[in-house]
Specification:
- The protein is mainly beta.
- It has a single domain, classed as Roll (10 Kd Chaperonin, Protein Cpn10, Chain O), CATH 2.30.33.
- Helix content is 9%, strand content 29%.
- It has a 6-stranded antiparallel β-sheet with strand order 4-5-1-2-3-6, with no helix packed on it.
- Strand 4 and strand 5 form a beta hairpin.
- It starts with 12 loop residues before the first strand and ends with a strand.
- 16% of the residues are buried.
Length: 106
Amino acid sequence: MDNVTSLEPVGYFLLVEPKPIETTTESGIIIADVTLKQERLATDIGTLIKIGPIAWNGFADGKPWATVGDKVLYAKYAGKRIVDPKTDKEYVLINDNDVLSIVKED
């Protein structure tokens, strides 16, 4: 996880780094750019990078559902895809209620 970003979510927004997309198959075939673009848009799992100051305050007891570093499942096509001008990395800025689940890894 790379926390070096100039992007800072405000309000109830969360900054998520989408799961990396493989650009080649196991056998070494390069995946077409159009397919990669579609895959990026459909990605719905990522790492929570930053949390806005009032995220989850409007729900039940206001306790966060996830913390920085958690892998989260978020609503497909949720939020706004943005590129950090400092690092040129792509992120997704989502609402706090778009987090559907924490993804536990074995």
